[in-house]
Amino acid sequence: MLKSLMEKREALMARFADVKENDIQDAELRSKFRNLKAKQGGFTLLELLVVVAILAAIAGTATIALQDTDARASAAAHVAMMDELNKGIRTYRVLNKNALPNNFDSLLSTTAADTASAAAASLLPNADGEILAIGDVVAGTLVADVAGAMGDIGMSELRYIVSDTTSLPDDVAAGGCNPAAGALQATIASRGNAVVAGNIFNGAAGNGCGQSVDVNDSAIVAYWSGSVERILGPGEYGNASFDGSVVTSTAGADTGAVAPVMLAVGFGPSSNLFNANELGGMTSVPVYRHVSEQQYNRFIGLFHVANATATSANTWAAPVAKDQVSFAGVVDGAGDTKEEELGEWDGTRNTI
Fold first, then answer.
1. Tens digits of per-residue pLDDT, 280-309?
2. Half-sphere exposure of residue 324, counting CA atoms within 13 Å on the CB side?
3. Are 180 and 143 in contact (CB under 8 A)?
4. Which residue from 171, 268, 323, 350 has the highest number of Cβ atoms inside 10 Å of its Cβ?
5. First CA to last CA distance, the chain
6. Residue 258 class from Cβ within 10 Å (0-12 exposed, 13-18 middle, 19+ buried)?
């Protein structure tokens, strides 16, 4: 019966469609005809419901397809920034007659009494209550003679947080630069001052708690403690890593193998690498965005400063300074290499 009614409706609609407006003589009837014709072109309630259902399905599909788009776009930008930093440092070195940029962020803090040597410095917190997002760095005394090799190539100073400084940024209370007591974390988190995580190694005038320190052999510095292979690729060093004092490994290193020891520094705005008025200086300081507002958001540079030689399988002698410091590479603010960051961009590695 329903089918019969639908057929009659369609037949009537077809006949109605064949009627010409000019064939209707009565003006009132012709007006009603025009109104019906106009309504005939609209949607029925059922048609509208179908359209809404289709749009909802499209929206749901788009939401899934665009999931993490912002984070992956940031990952793509991070890869580009890492490339730019690599090129920038190598270009700087060529243009400045083999000198490397100076005054990088040390990733450590010290007290006012120790700023002459940074001999009592400690790594900024990178566990609970962290400031650093990177985990693959460790503090250790500078390998003997490395300070001289660094000075020879232009890296004579590093910037340290001065925890008990009397020179404070505006609106920061005394003690507000002490990470050990949690005060620096509170200073960064506060909306009542201009201190932000990426600028904490600036001086007070730059809304930071940092100071330049002349590097000498008694200084405590930050070293890369992750696998050497992650930075330099496969080699005779196997899975060797440095714990701040000795190189260790469990496989892949035979007698005579050489493992690099790498200094880790932050690419902060106080470095002359970012002085656009200096030969080879870059015009902007890259920002790493996969961290919280309270975490240090700069990229990390690794410099090959010393070597350890295996005295037997997977047993290493104490590191010895290289004759000349060299640039090894860049990792992001969380310690990921370029290849690992690429994995976040293309979705093959979900650590965002």
1. 899 999 999 889 889 999 999 999 999 999
2. 7
3. no
4. 268
5. 60
6. middle
**Token digits for 322?**
């290289």
Q: Which domain holds residue 193?
A: 69-346
Return d(Cα 131, Cα 292) in angstroms, integer: 9
Q: What are the CB-based long-range contacts (under 8 Å, 24+) for 253-259? A: 253/310, 253/313, 253/314, 253/316, 254/310, 254/313, 255/310, 255/311, 255/312, 255/313, 256/309, 256/310, 257/309, 257/310, 258/307, 258/308, 258/309, 258/310, 259/228, 259/307, 259/308, 259/309, 259/310, 259/316
Residue 2 included in any domain: no
Q: What is 75-97 written as a DSSP string?
A: HHHHHHHHHHHHHHHHHHHHHTT
- Phi, psi at 266, each rounded to 5°: -95, 140
Token output for 52: 């809404």
CA atoms of 271 and 97, how far apart (whole Å): 18
pLDDT 10s digits, 76-98: 888 899 999 999 999 999 999 99
> What distance in Å separates the CA atoms of residue 91 and residue 98, rounded to the nearest whole number?
10
Tell me the C-alpha distance between 176 and 20, whole Å.
87
Q: What is the pLDDT of residues 300-340, one digit of tens each?
A: 999 999 999 999 888 999 999 999 999 999 999 999 998 88
Residue 52 within a domain: no
Dist. CA 261–CA 100, nearest whole Å: 18
- Domain-embedded: residue 54: no
The number of domains in the chain is 1
Tokens of 229: 């292979």
Helix (H, G, I), strand (E, B) or coil at 173: coil
Whether 23 maps to a domain, the answer reads no
Contact 314, 253 (CB under 8 A): yes
Distances (CA, A) of 135 to 222, 225, 344: 11, 8, 18
Are 148 and 218 contacting, i.e. CB atoms less than 8 angstroms apart?
A: no
Phi-psi region of 107 (alpha: psi -120 to 50; beta: other; left: phi over 0): left
| SS3 label, residue 15 | helix
Element (H, E) at 187: helix 183-189
Q: Give the span between the Cα atoms of 209 and 3, in whole angstroms.
A: 83
